[in-house]
Amino acid sequence: MTDTRDEAIIRLFHVHKRYGAKAALQDVTLEIAKNELLFVTGRSGAGKTTLLRLLYLGEAVSEGQILVDGMNLSRIPRARVPTLRRKFGIIFQDYKLIPTKTVYENVALVLEAAGRKPSVIPKKVRSVLRIVGMEDRMNAFPPSLSGGEQQRVAVARAAAGDPKIILADEPTGSLDEEAAGLIMSYLDTFHTRGATIIVATHDKELLKRADTRVVQLRDGRLLPPAPV
């Protein structure tokens, strides 16, 4: 069987992103392998969030090329953008759950938007909520949950559609150490199941425990790897 971990699912070639005169990213070239768990680190304002947004066309590059699973983001027509975005699950630091919908409904929305058959949605929602230990809270509303619990729901929502790639933007930034450890354990579970995981973080404790590749941004530039 071919080891697909050595195949790049994301390629960035000399990517620049500018907002007027401000350079958010400068000449970033990077390959990310299928089923890789990658940490992107750097101080606030280094370009981590911008990099993630470029991958799913939340922003367009100013210069350079990005390929995602064989799709050149500079060339895909607008009609295919939803196809691109279905390849991703996204986890935000501030959760972005809909407060007036239950935990179950927040996760089910992803599957409904992707056009999944109504008959399969309940089983899938329960399955991902079970993985993150939130099945017993599926009828609760987000405001009644702790920050850690809300982030667990956000992880379930990101993984519900079986995306090829999960982007996590500071997923542990507002959590205590125990809750942060749980979030990373759930991300590890979905990584083990085949997803490529990209975690943007400046959490030093998280990075100390990382046993996988870490790349660093500084002032929008990707720093060379540290000597071994």
TrEMBL record:
Keywords: ATP-binding, Cell cycle, Cell division, Cell membrane, Membrane, Nucleotide-binding. This is Cell division ATP-binding protein FtsE. Signal peptide: none annotated. GO terms for cellular component: plasma membrane. The gene is ftsE. One of its GO terms (molecular function) is ATP hydrolysis activity. SMART domains: AAA. It is a peripheral membrane protein. The keyword Cell wall biogenesis/degradation does not apply. Its main location: membrane. Belongs to the ABC transporter superfamily. It is found in: Cell membrane. GO terms for biological process: cell division. Part of the ABC transporter FtsEX involved in cellular division. Important for assembly or stability of the septal ring. The keyword Transport does not apply. PROSITE patterns: ABC_TRANSPORTER_1, ABC_TRANSPORTER_2. Gene3D superfamilies: P-loop containing nucleotide triphosphate hydrolases. InterPro entries: AAA+_ATPase, ABC_transporter-like_ATP-bd, ABC_transporter-like_CS, ABC_transpr_LolD-like, Cell_div_FtsE, P-loop_NTPase. SUPFAM superfamilies: P-loop containing nucleoside triphosphate hydrolases. Residues 10-228 form the ABC transporter domain. It comes from Desulfatitalea alkaliphila. Homodimer. Forms a membrane-associated complex with FtsX.
